[in-house]
Design goal:
465 residues; 9-stranded antiparallel β-sheet; Jelly Rolls; 3 domains; mainly beta; elongated; single chain; 32 strands
Length: 465
């Protein structure tokens, strides 16, 4: 009987149930493609070439073969590692030992908006680990704009080929001496704060180059300078500091490895930083760890949504948290029993479509068409009021309704403490219970003030005999 297990697809980022012999087996990485072993392999072994970040799999059943028996299956940078099952784990002692050695050598290299001090409780109470949290990045934003360059080899090697998501096409400059530049215009109102620069090369490898930003296509700010770049087919990736949104970005190569002085880009990507996706800490026994995080540095725009746009500023979040906790309302819904102005309400509200024209204070039921119509106690089919209109709403228009809460109308003159009933007049409220045979007696609430009612409709009704 064949064994089945989960297999990770690096191209789609999904897990698939496959026969056991088809599953990928992660092995130790190698320094370069040329260092991939050609003996001692098993079919579906996977190794990462560190110089290009590309993933390769041994594609034959024999344990020995040729270097060409390794097949490229994607980039390690695109793998969703959290989706992989049966990953190797480390004991608490292993982690403590590695952290101790790493920090004693002062070799932290993470990139972050701010540094964090993590104080772990539980079995590690009192231990303080200082580490910089790596920033996450949004998708490439070089889309919808215009690419240009100082020169091009021909029409099939034009500037736009560097942003067509195709590694079989590319931009090449003409054969004149360096420097050569490639530029991208995002367009009016589309400025972005670039924090990561990635590009793919197949040949004519750039040795010295810069990335600059501008908002007028004249004055340029240098964001990144690289000297002594290495050769190698694949992606190069650079993270850099930047807090300014630019419309124009320009890559300039001033030196190329080899004798031919061409500018060359297969693909180019620029990305914005989008902060942290979130962190979960666990003790060695699997229980939740107690974490104290002290933040220093700037947290500007640290929290972003899935599109890379600012979700809420730190000031907004701090203000909201402060108001929520000082109000002591963490687990309660608080209703203002004294609405501040006339024809207003406080409580649980919802948006519905009106079946007919309504005004503030009309009490409504849900008809068979799913719309809200004026409730009427004279018939069972038009009773069962559930909401009260909070504005003038046209037929077939959407509007706000109160489902439960306090309503204020200064024109009302209720008897305080008296019950409120659905009236036989469509949409109206009365303090006199309906008494005509066939009428539906439905309590809608109670008057808390001459001009205020507590609206809490009861759905259990009594029909007058």
């Amino acid at each position: 009987m064949a064994l089945w297990q989960s297999k990770y697809n690096p191209h789609t980022g999904e897990m698939t149930i496959v026969r056991g012999e088809s599953a990928l087996h992660m092995k130790a990485s190698v320094s370069a493609y040329a260092s991939l072993p050609i003996t001692g392999n098993e079919e579906n072994d996977v190794r990462i070439a560190q110089d290009t970040d590309l993933m390769w799999t041994w594609s034959i059943s024999a344990t020995s073969g040729l270097i060409t028996n390794w097949t490229q299956i994607g980039s390690a940078s695109s793998v969703d590692w959290s989706a992989i099952t049966n990953k190797p784990s480390s004991s608490t002692a292993d982690i403590d030992d590695a952290v101790s050695k790493k920090h004693s050598q002062n070799t932290d290299t993470g990139t972050s908006e701010a540094s964090f001090i993590i104080n772990s409780g539980g079995t590690h109470a009192g231990a303080i680990l200082e580490h910089e949290i790596t920033t996450n990045y949004a998708l490439d934003f070089l889309t919808g704009g215009t690419a240009s360059a100082d020169t091009q080899w021909n029409d099939t090697r034009s500037a736009d080929k560097a942003t067509d998501d195709d590694t079989e096409t590319w931009w090449n400059s003409n054969g004149s001496s360096t420097p050569h530049w490639w530029k991208y215009d995002l367009g009016v109102g589309n400025e972005k704060i670039a924090r990561r620069f990635r590009f793919y090369q197949r040949a004519l490898f750039a040795e010295d180059y810069t990335l600059k930003g501008s908002n007028n296509n004249t004055s340029w700010t240098t964001l990144l300078t690289v000297t002594g770049g290495a050769s190698g087919i694949g992606w190069r990736e650079h993270d850099f500091s930047n807090s300014t949104a630019y419309r124009y970005y320009m890559y300039t190569v001033t030196s190329v490895i080899g004798a031919e002085p061409y500018g060359h880009l297969v693909e180019v990507e620029l990305q914005e930083a989008i902060g942290l996706d979130g962190i979960t800490f666990k003790e060695g026994n699997g229980s939740d760890a107690l974490i104290e995080i002290q933040v220093s540095g700037t947290l500007t725009n640290l929290i972003k949504d899935e599109n890379g746009d600012n979700a809420s500023s730190p000031a907004d979040i701090a203000d909201a948290v402060s108001k929520k906790h000082t109000a002591g309302a963490d687990e309660n819904i608080t209703i203002d029993v004294v609405p501040a102005t006339d024809v207003t309400a406080s409580g649980v509200k919802a948006s519905f479509t009106a079946g007919e024209s309504l005004v503030f204070g009309d009490v409504c039921y849900v008809k068979s068409d799913g719309k809200l119509w004026k409730a009427d106690a004279s018939l069972a089919t038009t009773a069962s009021a559930v909401a009260i209109a909070l504005a003038t709403i046209s037929a077939d228009a959407s509007g706000s309704f109160l489902m439960m809460g306090v309503v204020r109308d200064d024109s009302w003159t209720w008897t305080v403490g008296g019950l409120l009933y659905l009236s036989a007049t469509a949409g109206a409220v009365t303090q006199t219970a309906p008494s005509t045979s066939g009428d539906q007696v439905q309590i809608l609430g109670v008057a808390t003030h001459a001009d205020r009612i507590l609206f809490k409709p009861e759905l259990v009704q009594v029909e007058v005999a």
